[in-house]
Amino acid sequence: MKFDGNGDVWFDNLYLYKESGGGGGDGTEPTTAAPNPTVDQANVYSLFSDVYTNATPSTFTETWGEGSVEDFQVGGNNIKKYTDLNFQAIGLSETVDLSAYTHIHVDVWTPIENKFGIKFQDFGADNVDEYPNVDDSEMELASSTTQSAGTWIGHDFAIADFTGLSGTAHLGQIQVLLGSVEGGTTGTAFIDNIYIYK
Ligand SMILES: [Ca+2]
Ligand SMILES: [Ca+2]
Ligand SMILES: [Ca+2]
How many domains does the chain contain in total? Predict the structure, then answer.
């Protein structure tokens, strides 16, 4: 450590430190919480966030999905930890009309660089999820933002970019994707602040 200057300088309190709740991590899990969202609650339909009043998804996993979920906390801040995540579904408690909303946001932390994606499924006018689809429509997209390792990355998708969706007036399911998205690798993902906004 070298000090450059021009004249007399007095020093005090010279020390290295770590952020509260941070440091000491081995890189396998976040040691800080994701940044708090700032979009106004009035313009948000939140599925999971400490900041907003959340809607009630019926589940954060489905048996046919690939990847398990558990609750995780950093300093009291709630996070969903997905392990061996390929694709996994967030099922809404019932279909909801989100046609007035324009974007979805998700904060993601991964221990290795990866690709993150979102899939929407609209259940159609009958509000029923059928397979194969009859009046359902669905589409997935990889985020254009790189999921860098060891840091919270905020992903924002414009719903209009999901051109395979007939609409979001009967939205029934949102999937979070890691391994199944192009360029992605199955692995661990910490996910927070899942909300749709306008
Ligand atoms: Ca949180
Ligand atoms: Ca349907
Ligand atoms: Ca379906």
Answer: 1
Report yes or no on 184 lying in a domain.
Answer: yes
- Cβ 194 vs Cβ 105: under 8 Å: yes
Distance 160 CA to ligand 3 centre (A): 20
CB atoms within 5 A of ion ligand 3 belong to 129, 131, 133, 136
The single-letter DSSP state of residue 98 is -
Tens of pLDDT, residue by residue over 167-178, are: 999 999 999 999
Query: CA-to-CA distance for 138 and 121, rounded, in angstroms?
Result: 4
> Where residue 140 sits, what CATH number does that domain have?
2.60.120.430
Instruction: Please tell me the pTM assigned to this model.
Output: 0.86
Q: How far apart are CA 102 and CA 193, in angstroms?
A: 16
For residue 97, report the distance from its CA to the centre of ligand 3, in Å. 17
Q: Which ligand does the CA of 62 lie closest to?
A: 3
Asked if residue 153 is part of any domain, the answer here is yes
Instruction: Give per-residue pLDDT as tens, 88-101.
Output: 999 998 999 999 99
